[in-house]
Design goal:
145 residues, mainly alpha, two-stranded antiparallel sheet, 2 strands
Length: 145
């Protein structure tokens, strides 16, 4: 009994942790990650006939790739937009953008359509399209019918 008390006293000072799979081998994890990424890129290259590493189309594929000017691409997909418009950083302090702080809106940003101020239409029910009928529970038939 004294042995159990000593063990319990020793465990009181140590926080409880779960180590289900043993310590993490960071080098092995990095190798497996790079291998999985390489396989995914190879599969995507075969599927889309495009080399995503060098960003060039591959010959003899099912697709014909052509370049598009930056003006025809939506703002979301344009490269190099991070430097022009600072994004909100995720962290301890996440202050939303307010008109007072960010009053200058860039001209090349696509605007979303404004929501109408009309009342919204009530969601329809299936009974709006047909009249609900009560079902009669089947009763045992009379003998002879």
């Amino acid at each position: 009994m004294a042995m159990h008390k000593r063990i319990l006293r020793a465990l009181r000072n140590v926080p409880t942790r779960r180590n289900l799979f043993g310590p993490v081998d960071r080098e092995q994890l990095q190798l497996e990650y790079r291998d999985a990424l390489r396989k995914d890129l190879e599969e995507a290259s075969r599927r889309w006939s495009f080399d995503f590493v060098s960003e060039t189309p591959l010959e003899g594929g099912d697709f014909q790739w052509e370049g598009v000017s930056g003006e025809k691409v939506p703002v979301l997909y344009r490269a190099g937009q991070e430097g022009k418009h600072p994004r909100l950083r995720v962290g301890k302090e996440n202050i939303p953008r307010t008109p007072e702080r960010f009053s200058a809106v860039p001209q090349d940003v696509e605007k979303t359509p404004e929501k109408s101020t009309e009342l919204k239409r009530k969601q329809t029910n299936i009974t709006d399209f047909y009249q609900a009928k009560k079902r009669v529970v089947a009763t045992p038939g009379k003998s002879g019918q």
